[in-house]
Amino acid sequence: MGSGRSGLYNNTKGSQNSNYSPSKLHNMVESWANRIAKELLNESNRKRDRFNTACIAIDITTGKKYYGRNGWMKDDTSKKNALLFGPKGLLPKKSLNNYELGNCAEVQAINKALNAGAKLENICITTIHATKTQMGRLKKACKNCTYTFKGKIKANYAGWED
Amino acid sequence: MMNTNQFKQVSLVGRIAYGIMCAEYYAKATYPDKDWTPLFKNMWAITNAQYWDEWANKYIEVIPEYLFEFPTYEASDFEYLSKPEYDVFTKLQRNTSPLWNNILKKIYEMEEIYAYSTIPGIGLESISILSEIIKILDEAGIQLPPIEKVTFSHFEEREGWGEHFDGSQLSTIISPK
Q1: pTM of the complete model
Q2: What ipTM was predicted for this assembly?
Q3: A142 in B contact zone (CB under 8 Å)
Q4: What is the 3-state secondary structure (H, E, C) of chain A?
């Protein structure tokens, strides 16, 4: 089990020496989130402050990294992968919580990875808070993402809904 | 001083509802001659909104800090707010105090703190934010709403989020539907 600056990585198997260790993914996603936050701030405080979650997905067979952020579906016109969004897709048929189905940072990151040819079982993810006050803190998956990805991807270093 | 431990049994939507009630009490005490109906209709929508991210997208645009970020409607690049709505909300909130902005922003932060995630434990972070709203009213000598108004919404409901309800029933500004 690895340890993050903001608490333990629960139920993880990543080695601290691995290229894909929890702490390395954490650093990568935090760097990405800070860059996105700066870009959004250049547009407006409002757009910056709508950014609250960032996720990195890594395909351990290729080392390729894919990033996601909350609320992506209204801006990102890329293909919605059928494995997630199709008629027999893994996402629940309707949202299990108060947030629009598929709008999570995890879904965008994994959708990108799947579109690039990754297999779910080879994907590791880490999700963090991206608000000004909580930036970098690990963020557990929501009920929709836990339903969709738990037991199907290799690891979620930020943890699942209990 | 209110004992905020009482909110430990209240759901997140109940806590947010209490924050909105605090905002109503502050608005009526501080700006009694304004008609706050349009703003509180927007705010209370969270209590029975299907998606809180959609509510937040709309609500953030009427918080003064963001509403007045740019000098004109055209420059603001709003995604939801129409020009007639912009005119209403800017007229309503022009020259309001930073404390008013803080109250509205903290209600937004209560929604954001667990967005797209789960509520850890009993969600102490949201009570901490709510305490900051309560402190603003306390320091301004403004009466607090009775907590009993929101205790019907239990933390046990929907993993802490609480069942949806008609928030207008709690409002002293907008009419019940």
Answers
A1: 0.93
A2: 0.94
A3: yes
A4: CCEECCEECCCCCCCCCCCCCHHHHHHHHHHHHHHHHHHHHHHCHHHHHCCCEEEEEEECCCCCEEEEECCHHHCCCCCCCHHHHCCCCCCCCCCCCCCCCCCCHHHHHHHHHHHCCCCHHHEEEEEEECCCCCCCCECCCCHHHHHHHCCCCCEECCCCCC
